[in-house]
Amino acid sequence: MRVRKYPRDMLPLLKDAEWVDTFRRPYVKGDEAFIPVREGYDADQELAEKAPYSGRGYQLLGDIAVLHGTRPTRQDITAIRDWLHPRGIVYISGYHGEKRVPAASLVYGECGEVCHHEAGFIFHLHPLKVMFAMGNREEKLRISRIIAKSTENRTIRCADMFAGIGYFTIPAAMSGATVHAMEINPDSFSYLKKNIAANNVSSAVTPELGDCRDSLKGVYDHILMGHFDAPAFLSDACAHVRTGTVLCVHTVGEQSEEISRCCAEAGYATEIIPYRVKKYAPGVWHMVHDVVIQ
Q1: Pair 187, 156: CB distance under 8 Å
Q2: Helix/strand/coil (H, E, C) string of 242-278?
Q3: Which in 61, 75, 211, 248 has the greatest CB count within 10 A?
Q4: Do the Cβ atoms of 143 and 120 come closer than 8 Å?
């Protein structure tokens, strides 16, 4: 692999340079980064190709590797360390409570705030403090398409009842919606505000710290409900809808019947289209239901 050598902290500044081969991952060792060079550009040296990685799966948030599932073994940690040379490796066994606080531990190196780029969006976060669901990448893009289509001829008002650090708020705002983003976790809310600024959507988003059931105001065209307990909040959401409002309701497993019942109790007929987001457990899917108020 043909590379140029730079200090590690220059990686963010060089990622869009014309000479960078974006189809290859930089090799980082200590404070040095070896950045792949495209054909037709000069290189400092050539590195031997690494053998393919065959170890345990991981997610990469900035320069922090994140592991889920069973607790990693020493062999797992060593394999990821030698492959990625990350700043740190974090193990997350789950998320707890309405604030979705990670049950997380640092198993190698050090951890701090990271800047994660995904599908054209920028997310600042601390992996030990707040939740980030990388498996929702396609759902973020789907929300972007839905909002963009809805805003072709008008401005729409969107509520994000469980905004977190802005997983869906940012795509919705960047696609043209005016977003009321609600978050109950102060740490997540702090990053939500930072990510709103980083993505240049401050004029389109109104962030609010607190319980979304107390924060909802007026009538919305779209209501994003990205929390597995979303069905329990439907009666509150339905107090702020009209005919044509679309609710995106996340659940574990298909729950169209329960969602329909909850909306009917609030006085609304619905058309419900369920989608699979990602596997949650063997035989169980993380689902999102597009609920159109009739």
Answers
A1: no
A2: CCCCEEEEEEECCCHHHHHHHHHHCCCCEEEEEEEEE
A3: 248
A4: no
- What number of residues does the chain have? 294
Calpha distance 36→25 (Å, rounded): 7
Whether the model clears a pTM of 0.90, i.e. scores above it, the answer is no
Beta strand ranges found along the chain (DSSP E): 2-7, 27-29, 32-36, 45-46, 59-61, 64-67, 88-96, 101-109, 114-118, 121-125, 157-160, 178-183, 205-209, 222-225, 246-252, 270-281, 284-293
C-alpha dihedral over 65, 171, 186, 63, to 10 degrees?
A: 20
Mean pLDDT score across all residues of the chain = 94
Domains of the chain listed by start with CATH number: 1-50 (no CATH), 55-112 (3.30.300.110), 134-293 (3.40.50.150)
Q: Is 93 helix (H, G, I), strand (E, B) or coil?
A: strand
Supply the pLDDT for residue 185. Answer: 97
d(CA 196, CA 183): 13
- Per-residue pLDDT of 171-187, as tens digits, reads 999 999 999 999 999 99
Residue 186: in which H helix or E strand, if any?
helix 186-198
Q: How far is it, in rounded angstroms, from Cα 192 to Cα 73? A: 34
Nearest one of 238, 241, 218 to 230, comparing CA atoms:
238
